[in-house]
Amino acid sequence: MTLYRYLLRESLPVLLLALLFLTAVYLFGFFYAGARWLEGVPLFKVARWLGYHVPGVLVQVFPIALVTTTVLVFGRLAAEGAQFALLSGGIPLGRAALPLLAVGGVLSGLALYLQEYLVPQYNERVRVAWWDEIHTEGAGLHRLKGLQIPIGQGRSLYFEGFDWQTKEMLRVRIASFQGEEATFLFAERGSWQDKVITLKGYRFYRVDFAAVPALEEAPDLLAGVRRVFRAVSQGSVLEVESDLSRARAIADYADTFSFGQDSLSAAYRKLRDPFLPPLERWRARLEFHSKLALPLANLVLVLLAAGMALRYGRSTGLALGLSVVLALGYYGSFFLGRSLAGLGALPPEVGAWGANLLFLALGVRALR
């Protein structure tokens, strides 16, 4: 127990400093990438936007910080010849790694919690804050111009233009189909707040495409056309309830980058959807197992980092270099597996868990 207390006392301050440093590096990277558009933006908006990145960044830096801590602490033990003392006292090296393995378990649990409850909503806020507050203040919807946006219940939203002064959509169309019967809502302008789309100057039409062939033989063509093509209503203002919120629409469709807006449970529900097409099911399997495998890397990397540090981490510089190599090696293997699984070369489960299994095997061997 004395050994465990010593290791924890030495490790926790290093882990905290590593987390703060790596988080700051990640956030500086986001700031540097967006510096061109951040000139003149109020400081509190920039700070809030960077703060929204923190939950997602923590999930990624937990393994790197833990590897750095393990390598530095066990490298110091190696420099002082402590591994020989441990072995002489009948203490296996694997048992010496138990305190940091426990820390890795805590970090894995925290990462899973963040993946489930915070990362999805904060990743959404990142995109909305960027497009709706920083890059184009209040005009994030302009990024959706010309796109077909599914808004639920078989309906899709499309608009041709955007008014930058009023922040309204121009020449709006909402279409939906039930079998071969379609409804079309056209509007001169539209605004979108939360889950309510307000249309101005709207016209509502219903078309029965199943009845179109009968028009060729209709005795009264005008009456037949009126039955097939019906103008249901028109007016000045109409509110349409959307299953998709304005913020989620901007987060999902404003650009081509994916920031993982699905929680772990949402990814699992998507995986279990019986109506999911085969290709989407393949991707859903890969996404779910990736979201599960990455947080558990905290447990896997401790073993290999401890074993490697005891053998090769006898100086601080060498220990830091070793931690970088291990972190890059893991993430390189992880994303290579994901890429191969995405191409269909590996099953999704193997692509997501392959790096964890490889580094677990190497870690067990290193601590023998």
Description:
Helices cover 61% and strands 17% of the residues. It is an alpha+beta fold. Strands 1-2-3-4-5-6 form a six-stranded antiparallel beta sheet. Strand 1 and strand 2 (155-163) form a beta hairpin. The longest helix has 37 residues, at 43-79. The radius of gyration is 28 Å and the shape is elongated.
Short précis:
The protein has 368 residues and is an alpha+beta fold.
Largest sheet: 6 strands, antiparallel
Count the helices. How many?
Answer: 12
Rounded average pLDDT: 89
Structural class: alpha+beta
State the helicity in percent bands.
55-70%
Arrangement of strands in the largest sheet:
1-2-3-4-5-6
Q: Nearest-angstrom radius of gyration?
A: 28 Å
Give start-end ranges of low-pLDDT stretches.
none
SSE order: HHHHHHEEEEEHEHHHHH
Classify the beta-strand content into a percent band. Answer: 15-25%
Distance between the termini: 21 Å
Number of strands: 6
What general form does the structure show? Answer: elongated
Can you tag this structure with a few keywords?
368 residues; 12 helices
Furnish the topology, listing elements before pairings.
Layout: H1 2-33, H2 35-38, H3 43-79, H4 82-88, H5 93-96, H6 98-134, E1 149-152, E2 155-163, E3 168-178, E4 181-193, E5 196-208, H7 221-228, E6 229-241, H8 246-253, H9 264-271, H10 278-312, H11 316-342, H12 348-366
Antiparallel strand pairs: 1-2, 2-3, 3-4, 4-5, 5-6
Helix pairs in contact: 1-3, 3-6, 3-10, 3-11, 6-8, 6-10, 9-10, 10-11, 10-12, 11-12
